[in-house]
Amino acid sequence: MLLDKLIGFFSSDLAIDLGTANTIVLVKGKGIEINEPSVVAVKQERTGEDAILAVGQEAKEMVGKTPGNIRAVRPMRDGVIADFDMTEKMIRYFIEKAHKRKSFIRPRIIVCVPYGLTQVERKAVRESALSAGAREVFLIEEPMAAAIGAGLPIKEPNGNLVVDIGGGTTEIGVVSLGGLVISKSIRVAGDKIDKAIMEYVKKKYNLLIGDKAAEDIKINIGTATTLRQELKMLVKGRDSVENLLTSIELTSEDAKDAMRDPIREIGEALMQVLEQMPPDLAGDIVENGVVLTGGGALIRNLDKYLSDIVRLPVFIADDPLLAVANGSGKALEEIDILQQLNNHR
Mind listing the pLDDT tens digit for each residue in 228-246? Predict the structure, then answer.
């Protein structure tokens, strides 16, 4: 017990929001130290081994632009580990960067995971963090972390509904008395919206664009409903018929049409959760409304779109991009939450 306390004193415990799009690392007592894309660039050596060239922002800038012997890998797909080895290397890199030195006393780590993970997937996340240098690993489900980060009173006997729209998954959770009463995770989120935009532009304009261009369209002119003042954006790509490089002007109405299906699926998932709601909690949700977190919460008029569907007030959390990460950081500070997580391992 004394040894554990001494180790805890000398090591900095970490919370990691291991996202499909971005990985955020918080150090206990210091806050966010790292917020970088979940991308690893690797070069294949003559021996056949993969050597790490870059991780994070530097690696993301290489996506779609690498020569044949270099690959830019996104080890997380749809909120789960798609490449165990690369995920381990990425976590190790971020742990070392957060500690600002190569050698360190192994930290305790909280890792955020989607609600719908299987036991096998949970084990993969835990083993990845342990292999990367963690002394002990706790998992916290994203809806709970999002609710904590959004400042909702999770310990009170009062239902609160949070919708976290990340890169790989949309997490919907009803929180009351410190636990998740109802949860749902769907693999429809930022990445699926980007892909829908790519397919729409190809189908309507015969223009081939990459992931980065689709994400830029979503951010710059994306909207869930028709805007009073239409937005426009010049988009560059390759004509799929003539194979020539060209550019077109896209409008926010184009973006709305492109994003329609994945956004509708998110609305349907929210309706399904509301349909499962016990009557007593339903009254709380009518009063408290729905809170949106995650990058998807920033899509123009998404709150209005969802509010029209469920006929409830929908609010965007303060700093929605960091809600899950901040919630994980608060869990680090509260030992009772850590113990509760430990009991569910």
Answer: 999 999 999 999 988 899 9
Are residues 165 and 297 in contact, defined by beta-carbon separation less than 8 angstroms? yes
Residue 177: C-alpha distances to residues 261, 270, 334 (Å): 35, 21, 16
**Tens digits of per-residue pLDDT, 72-83?**
888 888 778 888
Domain span(s) for CATH 3.30.420.40 in the chain:
2-38+75-144+323-343, 153-316
CATH superfamily of the domain spanning 2-38+75-144+323-343:
ATPase, nucleotide binding domain (3.30.420.40)
Q: What is the mean pLDDT of residues 13-17?
A: 90
Residues 110-133 have pLDDT tens digits of: 999 888 788 988 888 888 889 888
Residue range 153-316 forms a domain whose CATH class is alpha beta
d(CA 43, CA 249): 37
